[in-house]
UniProtKB/TrEMBL annotation:
GO molecular function, one term: peptide binding
Compositional bias segments (type: Low complexity): 49-62
Topology of the protein relative to the lipid bilayer: Single-pass type II membrane protein
InterPro entries: Aminopeptidase_N-like_N, Aminopeptidase_N-like_N_sf, ERAP1-like_C_dom, Peptidase_M1_aminopeptidases, Peptidase_M1_dom, Peptidase_M4/M1_CTD_sf
The UniProt record lists the keyword Kinase: no
Cofactor requirement: Zn(2+)
Keyword flag Isomerase: no
Protein name: Alanyl aminopeptidase, membrane
Transmembrane feature ranges: 12-33
GO biological process: peptide catabolic process; proteolysis
Domain called Aminopeptidase N-like N-terminal: residue spans: 79-257
Pfam family, any one: Peptidase_M1_N
Length: 718
């Protein structure tokens, strides 16, 4: 007879509710999908008459009065296709500037009568035709209105064309422009990047169009719902190569042209259904975040990559979404207008919350009776459950059939720390979930524990608590360090399991941090061997980031300078990135200050790498105050260079302030905000408010828990 599993009525009802919630999630997402599809495939060409030149009544001094004062395009025109030619000059002109020239013809359809053409344009200098910025023609026999006037609006980034009469609804027109722009190194639109090969500087023209940068490359209807077909021609010299993510149509050798024909082919939530506006960015990025796990899992099923969702999305978004300065998945369209507000939407909520929801839904639909029977043994009192959890973990360590799954072990640890932060259970009760780690060998539970313990490190690595915390970490990590030393035959082999390779990195990194005997010597021996023969690196690629960092932290000027020289001569981007990050690990203040100054020199640190380099230095307990002073003193320059639209700029603020936990640091943060209101914070605006909120919470947490935590670590580290 087959096994029968029994559950209580309360548990059964609870799981029924979870199932209903899962179904509701699927239905809600399906409705959102259908709504967006309808918006993009609806009746846009109904021929209704509506002049976009009518002024908006003024209610306050800040209310936009004209159509071009709004950040959103009018709904009177929709693009059909673009024919764009761009010619980047990869050598500076007489004024020392890198430039590009271009021409564009966009065919658009008029869906509502209007005497205005409003199209996005930013930092482009136009060739005039009879005193105007563009030429207008009809695609049929319909009469073409004359152009009365044209002008550029800097604030809303528009080219405005005033016509002498209205465009006719249902008729297609073409707008031709010719323009010149700077091929700047600002990481926006069509921009310049540089690298060194065999001691020779090479210049590349590359592009970043999302979210509001296409308008810096050519005039366009630069909104996500304004989809069209693009034909792009790149003019370049014969000794260079043009590459595209689109389909190559052919090359024109006589004119040194390389032509591409490409069309947006994002499947599902890209081309079939495109978000109408950036407030619903989660429709694109959230589902993409989830599907990437499915793709890797299909290609490499033995990696169990979907288990990592717990670490990289679920636990991550829980921490952010608990803040008052979080935001719902979908915000009101009126809340997301300016380019900086749009860039702010590219955040943890948009990416990880949907990914986590999809994962929850899938698992709710797959809960089996054996798991339900385990849930039925849980007590309403979390302290009782912790005791049962500890007992089950002891059983785990002596059994080939784990009593608690890897995912559940990781999630129980994370839940306990979150409940402690919410003051539902005590901090020491949460810490008890880590006592079994000396017997744990799997990556995901270890990583979950280390991510939570990292908060304790950040709060206490500048005061007396850190000594006993470090001793406790040493006690827990030493068996794992010895385990990997054994299975790798004294560090000469690579662990066979994919997650074991991840956990080997944890074992070495935390062991060196905690002072486990043999770790420092291991790191230094590998690095010394490399320094003796730079052409032969003995460090396995899996371990390079950890070994580089700790070798520089344990070393002095010679180790730092060696890494800097290897960084300058690196031919692989991944190797350069590892070395650039490791250089921030030094414990010598003057070296870190010099490195901070290097971020202002694009010949030393590429412009696109400067913010993350400053952030890496701030992760270092020695570098944190140096990075804060550096950014505080140079905020205006840093903001102008990186802050107006960069997706990752917010990470700079959150990264530097993650250790802030004193009243002095809170006042410093508030003073920084007040003193730079006139400069602005761009895409870091929400991050700054979150930093103030987190610092306030950190102060309160340290005050309430410092003494108790110190006693607990002291007791458990012996």
């Amino acid at each position: 007879m087959g096994k029968v599993y029994y559950i209580s009525k309360n548990v059964g009802l609870g799981m029924l509710v979870l199932t209903v919630c899962g179904l509701a999630t699927i239905i809600a997402l399906s409705v959102a999908y259908d709504k967006e599809k309808s918006k993009n495939q609806g009746n846009v060409g109904d021929g209704a008459s509506d002049s976009t030149s009518t002024t908006t009544p003024s209610t306050t001094p800040d209310t936009p009065k004209e159509p071009w004062d709004h950040y959103r395009l009018p709904d009177s025109l929709i693009p059909v296709s673009y024919n764009v030619t761009l010619w980047p000059r990869l050598k500076p002109n007489a004024e020392g500037l890198y430039i590009f020239t271009g021409r564009s013809t966009v065919i658009f359809k008029c869906v509502k009568e209007t005497d205005l053409i409003i199209i996005h344009s930013r930092k482009l200098n136009f060739t005039t035709f009879f005193g105007h910025h563009a030429k207008l023609s009809s695609q049929g026999e319909a009469p073409v209105p004359t152009i009365l006037n044209s002008w550029l609006v800097k604030k809303t980034e528009f080219l405005v064309i005033q016509l002498g009469s209205r465009l006719s609804a249902g008729v297609s027109y073409s707008l031709h422009t010719e323009f010149l722009g700077e091929l700047a190194d600002d990481l926006e639109g069509f921009y310049r990047s540089e690298y060194v090969e065999d001691g020779v500087k090479k210049v590349v023209a590359t592009s970043q169009m999302q979210a509001t940068y296409a308008r810096k490359s050519f005039p366009c209807f630069d909104e996500p719902a304004m989809k069209a077909v693009f034909s792009v021609t790149i003019i370049h010299s014969r000794d260079t190569v043009a590459l595209s993510n689109g389909k190559e149509k052919g090359s024109l050798d006589k004119q040194n042209h390389f032509s591409f024909f490409f069309q947006c082919k994002w499947k599902w939530f890209g081309n079939l259904v495109t978000l109408r506006w950036w407030n619903d960015l989660w429709l694109n990025e959230g589902f993409a975040s989830y599907v990437e796990y499915l793709g890797v899992d299909y290609a490499e099923p033995t990696w169990n990559i979907k288990d990592h969702i717990i670490l990289y999305d679920v636990q991550k978004v829980f921490a952010v979404d608990a803040l008052a300065f979080s935001h719902p998945l979908s915000r009101g369209e009126e809340e997301v207008n300016e380019p900086a507000q749009i860039s702010e939407m590219f955040n943890t909520i948009s990416y990880s919350k949907v990914c986590s929801s999809c994962n929850f839904t899938q698992h709710f639909m797959q809960v089996d009776s054996q798991k339900l029977s385990m849930y039925s043994t849980l007590s309403p009192t979390f302290a009782d459950n912790i005791a049962r959890f500890e007992a089950l973990l002891i059983l785990n360590s002596h059994s080939s059939s784990p009593a608690v799954s890897i995912i559940n072990r990781a999630q129980i640890i994370d839940d306990a720390f979150n409940l402690a932060r919410a003051k539902i259970i005590s901090t020491t009760l949460a810490l008890r979930t880590t006592k079994y780690l000396s017997k744990e060998r799997d990556y995901i539970p270890w990583e979950s524990a280390l991510r939570n313990l990292n908060y304790y490190i950040l709060m206490f690595d500048r005061n007396e608590v850190y000594g006993v915390l470090q001793a406790y970490l040493k006690k827990q990590i030493q068996p794992l360090f010895e385990h990997f030393k054994t299975i790798t035959s004294n560090w000469t082999r690579v662990p066979t399991g994919h997650t074991d390779q991840y956990n080997q990195i944890n074992a070495i990194g935390i062991a060196c941090r905690a002072g486990v005997e043999g770790c420092r010597e291991l790191i230094k021996s590998w690095y010394r061997e490399w320094m003796k023969n730079p052409s032969r690196n003995p460090i396995h690629p899996n371990l390079k980031s950890t070994v580089y960092c700790y070798a520089i932290a344990f070393g002095g000027v010679a180790e730092w300078d060696f890494a800097w020289n290897m960084f300058k001569n690196a031919t692989l981007a991944s190797e350069a990135s590892r070395l650039r990050s490791a250089l921030a690990c030094s414990k010598i203040p003057w070296l870190l200050n010099r490195y901070l100054e290097y971020t202002l020199d694009p010949t030393k640190i590429r412009k696109q790498d400067a913010p993350s380099t400053i952030q890496n230095i701030a992760r270092n307990v020695v570098g944190m105050p140096l990075a804060w002073n550096f950014v505080n003193a140079r905020w205006s320059y840093i903001f102008q260079q990186y802050g107006k639209g960069s997706f990752s700029f917010s990470n700079l603020v959150s990264g530097i302030t993650q250790r802030f936990s004193t009243e002095y640091e809170l006042q410093e943060l508030k003073r920084f905000k007040e003193e730079n209101l006139s400069v602005g914070f761009g895409s870091a605006t929400i991050a700054l408010e979150q930093a103030i909120e987190k610092t306030t919470a950190n102060i309160k947490w340290v005050t309430e828990n410092k003494a108790e935590v110190q006693r607990w670590f002291a007791q458990e580290s012996t």
